[in-house]
């Protein structure tokens, strides 16, 4: 549903109708008031000075005999005009300073954040009075003072909101897509923070009205002969006990208008509220023309990859792997072993302040430490499809954007391709569904849409990081089948990250086992059951439930815990949990070296192949029934 549709819907609610009536009434009074009652409000009548309420003068008269009711009505235009001008300054300033840290480079962003932090520490009222004095007494000085005083708290709010959106996967995906700063702000950041920002703007308008009236009341705002509600309040306050209605009327006008502003904010925010979804993501990166991969067909070449953080954590400690054209490789390991960071290092998505170093990190022959992967050659599918889809954009728009940005394709052409790709990933009624936003999709459909997004270009490698973990077991199989199909049809290679050996065994040809930031074994899937040589791989296999697992026995678990990412012990990281470890294992770390004809292992005491039939057969892909049995 478009914003206009949601706004129409919100306006039909009781709050919406009240807000609409209030806005219409204010607009009417502001437009027609000075025209109809202007002469009455200005007419001096020395014969009727300081009169109380009567039929001729509903709220009485002032010290020049002017009709107070007419003056309150006429003052509406100036009061609203000044309030809206100050609010516009405040909101614009808040948006500019609030979004800046997310799009500027890190140092400039920090300066802006620090400046806002300093400004916000001044009490608001003092800040207004200080600025009003700086800009001079008068309406324009007061507009600037009130507007600028609103900037620091607004900017802090926008900064916080932007930071949460900027950390999402769809923004990361857009960033490596090469989406420009302006587009990033208008398409990805602002639409997703619109709801709280609109509420803030409405509250700010109400606050501005009060602040403005306060300044005029203090004699720092509007100056005679001009008048707004604040000035009228000031004029009548000393007669509060003689003619209370004359003093209260401008105050009541301020309160009622503030209520209308608040209602308007609620309606706008309601219309901007994205129905909260769930999402995963696809990322593809920009770059020049394709370069052939290495002649031996190696697409991704990684040697001694290290990812570290300034706090001393070193979650990836020398991972080495290679992926050849069209190959499907599974990367398995316990939670925290560094699988995701390895994938993020390839895509250039390691979160700040993580440091990525490597002996070699090449994709299509291109050094990834120096340049980004080419165009749409690399597609990423993340775990949570909702986090990688922008909740404020239709799914079709998000897919089209990939080719609009990369191939400068016309919108209509990009849209046709988006619908086609959604159809390819079996989204039913794709033409209609493309116009919907992600919340209207089921979890499985979202993940399929994310895979479709990866297919908008010409991916040579798809990195799927736990793509089925967030999904219901019944749709896991569909998504895995789809990944396999996509790979066969597009010829792309697949790096499938999972903590679940069964999933990897069902989809991949080769398995890499990761432990404490290193690859400890690399072997064909067919060898998993009987020929795994690393004790850790054997233990992982032993922990996989199968259809023949005795339900009355507890599943095998690996005793002990993996080392923490800041652990500095020398030797094999698995030594403390390994039944075969000796002194050498505890002091020297083994390298990943060839083992047999088709495998590599990092172990001083690789195990000999298990006797035929004694290995734990890995079930193809755990489906709903197996999982239920396993957990029963
Ligand atoms: N942004 C970060 N800052 C500091 N440490 C981090 C950060 N991201 C990850 N780590 C550390 O790196 C370790 C490995 O993280 P990673 O996400 O790569 O593990 P994983 O094997 O993918 O595990 P999981 O299956 O749970 O996602 C984590 O345990 C954490 O200690």
TrEMBL record:
Cellular compartment(s): Cell membrane; Membrane
Domain ABC transporter: 300-541
PROSITE patterns the UniProt entry points to: ABC_TM1 (PS50928), ABC_TRANSPORTER_1 (PS00211), ABC_TRANSPORTER_2 (PS50893)
Protein name as annotated: Dipeptide/oligopeptide/nickel ABC transporter permease/ATP-binding protein
InterPro entries: AAA+_ATPase, ABC_Ni/Peptide_Import, ABC_transporter-like_ATP-bd, ABC_transporter-like_CS, MetI-like, MetI-like_sf, Oligopep_ABC_C, P-loop_NTPase
Composition skew (Low complexity), residue ranges: 275-286
Source domain of life: Bacteria
Xref: SUPFAM superfamilies: MetI-like, P-loop containing nucleoside triphosphate hydrolases
Keyword vocabulary terms for this entry: ATP-binding, Cell membrane, Membrane, Nucleotide-binding, Transmembrane, Transmembrane helix, Transport
Domain ABC transmembrane type-1: 80-265
The organism of origin for this protein: Streptomyces tanashiensis
Entry keyword annotation includes ATP-binding: yes
């Amino acid at each position: 549903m478009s914003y206009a549709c949601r706004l129409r819907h919100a306006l039909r609610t009781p709050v919406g109708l009240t807000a609409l009536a209030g806005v219409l009434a204010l607009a009417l009074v502001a437009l027609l008031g000075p025209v109809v009652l202007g002469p009455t409000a200005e007419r001096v009548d020395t014969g009727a000075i300081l009169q109380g309420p009567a039929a001729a003068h509903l709220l009485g008269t002032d010290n020049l005999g002017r009709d107070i009711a007419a003056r309150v009505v006429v003052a509406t235009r100036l009061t609203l005009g000044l309030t809206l001008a100050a609010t516009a300054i405040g909101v614009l300033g808040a948006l500019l300073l609030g979004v800046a840290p997310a799009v500027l480079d890190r140092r400039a962003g920090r300066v802006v954040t620090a400046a806002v932090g300093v400004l916000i520490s001044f009490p608001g009222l003092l800040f207004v009075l200080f600025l009003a004095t700086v800009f001079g007494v008068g309406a324009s000085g007061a507009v600037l003072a009130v507007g600028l005083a609103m900037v620091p708290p607004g900017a802090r709010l926008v900064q916080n909101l932007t930071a949460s959106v900027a950390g999402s996967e769809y923004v990361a995906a857009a960033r490596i897509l090469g989406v420009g700063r302006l587009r990033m702000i208008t398409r990805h950041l602002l639409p997703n923070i619109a709801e709280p920002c609109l509420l803030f703007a409405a509250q700010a308008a109400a606050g501005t009205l009060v602040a403005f009236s306060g300044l005029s009341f203090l004699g720092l705002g509007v100056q005679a002969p001009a008048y707004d509600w604040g000035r009228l309040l000031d004029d009548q306050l000393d007669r509060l006990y003689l003619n209370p209605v004359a003093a209260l009327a401008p105050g009541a006008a301020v309160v009622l208008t503030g209520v209308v502003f608040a209602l308007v904010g609620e309606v706008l925010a309601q219309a901007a509220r994205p129905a909260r979804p769930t999402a995963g993501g696809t990322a593809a990166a920009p770059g020049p023309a394709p370069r052939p991969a290495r002649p031996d067909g190696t697409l991704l070449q990684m040697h001694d990859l290290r990812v570290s953080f300034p706090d001393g954590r070193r979650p990836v400690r020398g991972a080495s792997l290679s992926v050849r054209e069209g190959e499907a490789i599974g990367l398995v390991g316990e939670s925290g072993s560094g699988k995701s960071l390895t994938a993020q290092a390839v895509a250039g998505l390691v979160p700040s302040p993580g440091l990525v170093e490597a002996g070699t990190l090449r994709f299509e022959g291109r050094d990834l430490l120096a340049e980004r992967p080419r165009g749409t050659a690399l597609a990423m599918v993340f775990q949570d499809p909702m986090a990688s889809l922008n909740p404020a954009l239709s799914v079709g728009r998000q897919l089209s954007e990939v080719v609009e940005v990369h191939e400068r394709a016309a919108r209509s052409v990009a849209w046709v391709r988006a619908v086609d790709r959604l159809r390819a990933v079996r989204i039913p009624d794709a033409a209609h569904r493309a116009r919907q936003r992600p919340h209207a999709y089921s979890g499985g459909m979202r993940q399929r849409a994310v895979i479709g997004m990866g297919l908008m270009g010409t991916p040579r490698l798809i990195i799927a990081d736990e793509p089925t973990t967030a999904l219901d077991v019944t749709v896991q199989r569909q998504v895995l089948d789809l990944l396999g199909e996509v790979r066969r049809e597009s010829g792309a290679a697949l790096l499938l990250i999972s903590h679940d050996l069964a999933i990897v065994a069902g989809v991949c040809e080769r398995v890499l086992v990761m432990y404490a930031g290193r690859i400890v074994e690399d072997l064909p899937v067919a060898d998993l059951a009987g020929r795994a040589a690393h004790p850790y791989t054997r233990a992982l296999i032993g922990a996989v439930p199968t259809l023949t697992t005795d339900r009355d026995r507890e599943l095998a678990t690996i005793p002990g815990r993996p080392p923490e990412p800041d652990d500095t012990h020398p030797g094999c990281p698995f030594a403390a949990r390994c039944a075969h470890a000796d002194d050498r294992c505890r002091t020297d770390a083994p390298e990943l070296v060839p083992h047999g004809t088709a495998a590599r292992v990092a172990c001083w005491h690789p195990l000999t192949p298990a006797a035929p039939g004694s290995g734990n057969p890995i079930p193809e892909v755990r489906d709903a029934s197996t999982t239920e049995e396993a957990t029963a």
